[in-house]
Design brief:
Layout: H1 16-38, E1 40-42, E2 48-50, E3 67-69, E4 77-80, H2 85-94, E5 102-110, E6 124-133, H3 141-165, E7 178-181, H4 182-188, H5 194-205, E8 207-211, E9 245-252, E10 257-266, H6 270-279, H7 289-295, E11 302-308, H8 309-316, H9 332-340
Parallel strand pairs: 1-5, 7-8
Antiparallel strand pairs: 2-4, 3-4, 5-6, 6-11, 8-9, 9-10, 10-11
Helix pairs in contact: 1-3, 1-8
Length: 346
């Protein structure tokens, strides 16, 4: 069980009923702006997909999805999605989206291998999964930063929207987001672990996009693990910095630590897919259906990511615990501690 943080004297600024209303306001406003800003169309997404096809997201490469067999589909094993990172790209091709356009959807998932249930981690995950077609000319850091700034502008706009409606909530996001590579963080704070580096940097800068998640750093470590078959973390710009992906972090004043809101990146092309499968010692995945489609040019180049809905609402409503903005299941110890600290779990 993870460590729960209960800031002294921190009380909810909204009642449970007000919170439920505010959650819908935030979600409606954010997804409309996301679709408009990035030229995205909403699509319907699956809750489960066939196993052994390569469609499901392997996350860090070690988490096992919830799986089941259906009486109606004899011999077919199904898996609850862990995210829609690869499914979305397949849909871009099937729906013939042009460069500069894409899709988004609501994704609901179960993370049974989540070991750390704390203020920001739950067994239940809800996020906006989005994907947009790009051209070969877009496969560079400048374009990645261009898209990140668009998303950050939506975060700023949403915070303003919330603060206008709830006078007890004050704006906190800085005017601009800072870009830093995970290698630069290691160089800045060589004696700290990745989470400590994030906290140190975000405490100073308040909003940052950390680039290069999954690629090997100069000391042989990685800032955080990423599956080998969606984000392009092996791309090198020639100066020792690798990766065309990253995470959006903001500083959470309520908890006094960095909060990840989004994981995103430019996706692998054929060369990067083969290289990354080799680096993660799983070249056999090339024989899976999804991977064969990519290698046979049946899917477009793309950029995409996931944006945590509950974490977004938690931050904008200045909540202490993610359970205040989503309905999940918690250990009795957490339920009791939240009740003692006047934290209303949904």
């Amino acid at each position: 069980m993870g460590l729960i943080t209960y800031p002294n004297g921190q009380k909810s600024l909204l009642s449970t009923k007000e919170t439920e209303i505010a959650i819908k306001l935030i979600k409606d406003f954010f997804q409309l702006n996301l679709a408009t800003e990035l030229n995205l169309s909403r699509v319907t997404a699956p809750l489960f997909v066939p196993a052994n096809t390569g469609i499901n997201d392997d996350l860090n490469g070690i988490e096992k999805p919830v799986a089941f067999n259906s009486k109606a589909l004899i011999g077919t094993k199904l898996e609850i999605v862990q995210s829609l990172a690869k499914w979305k790209r397949m849909m871009l091709g099937q729906m013939s989206f042009e460069p500069g356009y894409g899709l988004y959807t609501d994704m609901n998932a179960i993370r049974p291998d989540e070991e750390c249930l704390d203020n920001t981690h739950s067994l239940y995950v809800d996020q906006w999964d989005w994907e947009r077609v790009i051209t070969p000319e877009n496969m560079n850091r400048d374009f990645l930063e261009y898209i990140v700034r668009k998303i950050y502008s939506i975060l700023k706009r949403t915070e303003h929207y919330v603060c206008e409606r709830y006078s007890s909530i004050k704006p906190e996001l800085p005017e601009d987001i800072v870009f830093v590579h995970s290698q630069e963080l290691l160089d800045l704070y060589p004696d700290l672990d990745p989470r400590e580096r994030e906290n140190k940097f975000l405490h100073e800068h308040k909003a940052a996009f950390i680039i290069g998640i999954g690629g090997e750093l100069s000391d042989g470590s990685v800032h955080d693990l990423r599956a080998p078959d969606y984000d392009n973390w092996s791309y090198s710009n020639g100066n020792g910095q690798k990766g065309l992906n990253g995470d959006i972090f903001i500083w959470n004043n309520v908890l006094g630590k960095a909060l990840e809101l989004s994981s995103m990146g430019i996706r692998v092309d054929k060369a990067a897919l083969i290289e990354q499968l080799e680096k993660r010692n799983c070249p056999e995945r090339k024989e899976l259906m999804w991977h064969k489609m990519l290698l046979n040019d049946e899917m477009p180049l793309s950029i995409g990511g996931g944006i945590g809905q509950s974490r977004l609402c938690m931050y904008f409503l200045r909540k202490v615990h993610i359970g205040e903005v989503q309905a999940s299941v918690w250990p009795k110890e957490i339920i009791d501690e939240c009740k003692t600290n006047s934290i209303n779990l949904l």
